[in-house]
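User: Predict the complex.
Assistant: Input components as received:
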Amino acid sequence: MKGLKIKLADDMLVLRQANQPATVINVKGCPIGGDSIVVVAGPCAIENEEILKETAFKVRGSGAVMLRGGAYKPRTSPYSFQGLGEEGLRILARIGEEMNMPVVTEVMDTADIELVSQYADILQVGARNMQNFSLLKKLGQINKPIILKRGLAATIEEWLWAAEYILAGGNSQVILCERGIRTSEPWTRNTLDLSAVALVKELTHLPVLVDPSHATGIRSLVTPMARAAIAAGADGIMVEVHPHPERALSDGDQSLTPKGFSQLMKEIEPIARAVGRRVY
Amino acid sequence: MKGLKIKLADDMLVLRQANQPATVINVKGCPIGGDSIVVVAGPCAIENEEILKETAFKVRGSGAVMLRGGAYKPRTSPYSFQGLGEEGLRILARIGEEMNMPVVTEVMDTADIELVSQYADILQVGARNMQNFSLLKKLGQINKPIILKRGLAATIEEWLWAAEYILAGGNSQVILCERGIRTSEPWTRNTLDLSAVALVKELTHLPVLVDPSHATGIRSLVTPMARAAIAAGADGIMVEVHPHPERALSDGDQSLTPKGFSQLMKEIEPIARAVGRRVY
Amino acid sequence: MKGLKIKLADDMLVLRQANQPATVINVKGCPIGGDSIVVVAGPCAIENEEILKETAFKVRGSGAVMLRGGAYKPRTSPYSFQGLGEEGLRILARIGEEMNMPVVTEVMDTADIELVSQYADILQVGARNMQNFSLLKKLGQINKPIILKRGLAATIEEWLWAAEYILAGGNSQVILCERGIRTSEPWTRNTLDLSAVALVKELTHLPVLVDPSHATGIRSLVTPMARAAIAAGADGIMVEVHPHPERALSDGDQSLTPKGFSQLMKEIEPIARAVGRRVY
Amino acid sequence: MKGLKIKLADDMLVLRQANQPATVINVKGCPIGGDSIVVVAGPCAIENEEILKETAFKVRGSGAVMLRGGAYKPRTSPYSFQGLGEEGLRILARIGEEMNMPVVTEVMDTADIELVSQYADILQVGARNMQNFSLLKKLGQINKPIILKRGLAATIEEWLWAAEYILAGGNSQVILCERGIRTSEPWTRNTLDLSAVALVKELTHLPVLVDPSHATGIRSLVTPMARAAIAAGADGIMVEVHPHPERALSDGDQSLTPKGFSQLMKEIEPIARAVGRRVY
C-alpha cells in the first residue's frame, strides 16, 4: 500500500503478497471469493423447523446459495431468547441437507466448537467475539471455513490481526465479514464501512462478505447497501430473511420478507455484472 | 419512515411529503437530482490558472460536467496555504466559462457570500461549517444553489436541520453531500456513511452527492467508493483531481490523476445503468 | 512530551516551552489560570433581565466570579429560540456591571464581533465554530480574552491548532474549554474528556476550563464532574444555572438550580484544596 | 433517574432499588465499595517471580491493598507474548500469599475458569470479553468476585446488562471497572469516561473501579486521572506498575514506576478525604 501509513508485519499470513492470487474457499461446491457473488440468507435465529424450512425454500428459490441461522445467540440481555442450542443445530443441518444448501452458524464458546462443527459447514465468529482470542486460537486448529465478523469498534488493523490468529493456527479458510461499526450516528444501528471492504480487498487475499442487515438495522436500507457492497468489491452478502419479520424472536426490524429478498436479488444482479461478476 | 424511531417535525421543509417529487436543481442547464448522475471534479485548491485549466480540460474530456476548486481553504493550521481568495475565484470563473462548466466553490464567512456569489454557480458549505448557523441563515437569503456537506461528527438529524436553516430562509436549492464521518477507524481519513445516503434519499426530496475523496483520503479507494455511492442511490459524486497530485498544495494523497479519473468514469457508467440511471 | 507520538510544530505559540510559566489571563481583576479556581455560572440563554439578575445574584452569593449567558444561541433547529441578540447583550452587560461580575457570551458570526466586544468581557467560540477559521482569524485581531470550546468531534491536536489561529493573529488571551466530545455512548449528551484536560495542561501554557453541564446533559452529573475536573487539573469550570430549570428556554435538563449550584460550590472547595488550589 | 431517558427493566438485579444500600464486596478482609478507596496495583503481565515480587513489595509499601497481574493476556497479535498461563497463576498466588494481598487476574476462556479460580481471589473479565456471554454465564455460577471491565465501545446500558448476566446466574459479587472507551481522539489510547462512573454509581448498587492506565496509555496522565476518578465517586482504582517500565513485555508506556506509584498514592489521599472517604 504505497502512500498509506499502515503498519502491519510484512510477513503476516493474512496479507496478499505480490502475485498471490485471491483465496477461493470451496464450501460443498460453492466457491467463496471467486468470480461469483455468494448470497447467504436466513433468519437471525433458528426458531423452529417450519419457519427455517419455509425461509430456506424461498431464499433458495430467489438465488441464495447458503443458509444462515443462529442456534447460539449473543443477546444483550440474559432474559432474551438465547437460541435453541443443539436442537437448533440439528434443525439447521437437516434443512441444509434437504435444500442442498451449505449452512452457516455462530459459535460463541470454545466448549461448543466440536459440537457446532458436527452440524455446520461454516462457523461464524460474531462481532462481540472478534477479539475472543481463546476462541480464535481453537478455530485455528479445525478444518472448517470460518466467517470472522468485524468487531463493533474494531479497527481494520485489529480485524486483520484477529484473522491472523486463525491462520497462524493452521486454518487458512477465513472469510472476513464487514457488519458495520459503532459510531455517533444514532439512526442506523451501526455505520456500514464499505471503504474498509475495498481496503481489505487490496490488503489481503481473503474473501470479504458484507452483512447489510446488522449494519443498518433498517429493512429499507438492506437492498441499497447490498447493491453498494457489491459495487465496492465485496465477494458476497449475508442477509436476514424471515417469513414473518413482525413475529421474529430477534432482529425483526431489519429482516427482509422473502418477497423483499427476491427484489434484492433482482437488484444486485445487474450491479454484479457491472463489476464483471455474476450472482450464482 | 414506518418502524424508524426518527423524530423530526413532520412539517419540515426538508422532508419529502407523500407524492412529492424529488427536487431537481438546474445549474446552467445541468440538472442535479434527476435521472442523470452528475460528476463534479477538480483540484482541492485553486493553485494557479494553468493547473486549473489543465484539470478542467481533462476532467471535462472524461465526462465531468461541473468544476470544483477552493479559493478559501479551511486548514487545520493557520500556517498552511489558505487559498488564493478573490484571485482564485476569478480564475475559477474564467476557466468555468471557457470550458462551459458550472463552478462550485466553498464559502466560509458570512462576509464573503456576496463576493463568492459573483463568481460561483454553486456555493459550498464545508463540513466544519455545517452548523455555522449564521452562514446558513445568510445563504437562505440568496438565490444560488448550495452544496451542504455533512459535518465531521454530525448526525443525519443535524444535517437535515442544517438544510432546514437554508430552506427556511427561502432558498430551496439545497444539495446534500456526504463526505465521511469521524469514527474510531484510523486508516481511512473518515468513514464514508453510505447508509446515510440511502436513508436521506428516502426522507428528503433533496439531491444527495457523495465525496469519496475526502471520505477516504486514499487514492485507490476513490473509485470503489464512487461505484458504491451510485449503487446506494447517490445523485452524483464530487471528486478531487489534480494533474500532479504529488505536487498538490493540499490533499495530494487522495487526488486522482486525470488518467485515474478517466478510469473512474468508465467504471461508474455501468453502475449507473444498473440502477436505471446514466452518467451525463 | 517524551514517549508520546504527538506531532505538532515545535515552535507553535500555543505550546509551553521549557521554563515558560503558565499564562494567567486577568479579566477585570479576576485572574484565570493562576492558583485560584475560577467559576463561571449563569443561564444557557439570556431570557430576560429578571431571570438573569436573579441567577447572577444567587450564583455570586455562592461564589461564582463570572457570569455567563447566551445572546446568540446556536440551535439545531431554525425554529428554536435563537437568543435575544443585541438586547440580550445589553441586559448581560448591565447585570454584570451591577453585580460586579465580568461577563462571558458567545459570538457566532464575524459580523458580530465588534458589537459583542462592546458588551462582553470574554468572547466565547462555541463547539460548533471551533474550526470556523474566519471567526478565529478575526478574533486574533481583537484585544479581548477568548474562551475556545473544543469541537464536538475535534481531536486535541485540532483544538490546539484552532487556538494557534487566534494566537498567530496577535491575541494571546486564549482560554481553552473542554465540553465533551461525541462518542457512541448515548446516555450522556457527550463524553467529558478529562484526560484531554490533563494532557493539554502539560502541552500548553494556556488556562483550561471545563463545562460539565454541556458535557453530560444530566443535572445530577454536573457536580461530580465539576469535582473530577478540578481534580484533573482544570483551572475552572463553567456551569449552567437557572432559577427555574423546568421553564428554561434551552438546556433545562442540565441546568442546576441556585441551590444545587451552592452545593456544587461546597463540594469543589475541598477538592481545590486537595490539589493545592482554592476557589475564589 | 428522573429526567433521564434511560430504558432498563425496572427489576434488573443490577439496579439500585429505593433504600437499597451499596453492595460491599469483601475480599479476604478488604471491603470493596465501602468508605475506603481500594487500590489494586501490579504489572500488566506476570513476567517472572522476581519482578512480580519486587512490584508487590513496593506497591504494598505505598498503600496498595490488592495485587494484579495477567497470566493470560489478550494481545492484538498472535505473535506477541501471550502470558505465562498456569505458571503465571502459581507465581501470582504465591506472591499474593507472601505479601498478604488478595490477587486479581484475567480469565479469557470458559475452559480456564476452574483453574484460574484455584489461584485468584478476584477474576477479571477484560474489555474485549465484556460481551462474551458464554464466559459471563459460567462466571455467574462460581463463588468468586468478578471485575467486569467495560467494553471498548460498550454503552453503559450494555455494560449493566453484561453485569446482569453474572448476577442472574447467582453470583452477586460483581465489581464494575471503567477503563476508557474508543473514540475519535487519537492521542490518548482511549477516552476515560468518568461521567459513566458517576452515572453507574447512581443507577446501581455495585462497586465501581477505574483503570486510568489502560484508559490513557500515557504515564503522565495516570495520576491526574486517578485523582479525577476518586473525585467523580469511584470506589477504587487499578493501576499498572512495573519496576522497569522500559523493559516491560507489555504496556510499558503506561506503567508507573514504583516511585511514580508512591506519588500517586500521596496525591489521591487528600482527594479521598475531600469526598469524605479514605484510602486504606
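Chain A touches chain B through 46 residues (CB under 8 Å).
Let me know if you want any component modeled separately.
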